[in-house]
């Protein structure tokens, strides 16, 4: 099995953690967007509608375009808030994130739950390696 990126093809042998087409399709169908404003330091950003355990994908800047995943938590830890992890003033910046609701992950399909977690891990890993 290979994981394709736009820069190279990376051999992957861990098929037990591979995201199945069913799991990927189910996860993507449940995503919803949410916008929020950053904080003046690391801490809470109001994001009405997110719940504890929701998985955040692809946080992007609207004020300053670009990926901002590294500046925020990956999984919501406080209801109606997204925690800013970067200790910088982002209070004048607006962001958007794709959210996979935790309630869907917990109560429904275990394949979806596993796919959501693995998809987030793979996404963060590729972003850390500089893949877009």
* Oligomerization category of the chains in this entry: single chain
Percent of residues in helices comes to 25-40%
Q: Over all CA atoms, what is the radius of gyration? A: 15 Å
End-to-end Cα distance: 20 Å
Shape: globular
Round the mean pLDDT to the nearest integer and report it: 77
Uncertain segments: none
Structural class: alpha+beta
Biggest sheet record: 4 strands, antiparallel
Number of domains: 1
What is the H-and-E element order? EEHEEEEEEHH
Strand order of the largest sheet: 3-8-5-6
Strand content: 25-35%
Number of strands: 8
Count of helix runs: 3
List the helices and strands and how they pair.
Blueprint: E1 2-4, E2 9-11, H1 21-30, E3 32-37, E4 43-46, E5 55-61, E6 66-67, E7 81-84, E8 94-100, H2 102-107, H3 110-128
Antiparallel strand pairs: 1-2, 3-8, 4-7, 5-6, 5-8
Helix pairs in contact: 1-3
Structure notes:
The chain is of the alpha+beta class and 132 residues long. It has one domain. 27% of the residues lie in helices and 27% in strands. It is built from 3 helices and 8 strands. The longest helix has 19 residues, at 110-128.
Brief summary:
This protein is of the alpha+beta class. It is built from three helices and eight strands. The chain has one domain (2-128).
Core attributes:
132 residues; alpha+beta; four-stranded antiparallel sheet; two-stranded antiparallel ribbon; 3 helices
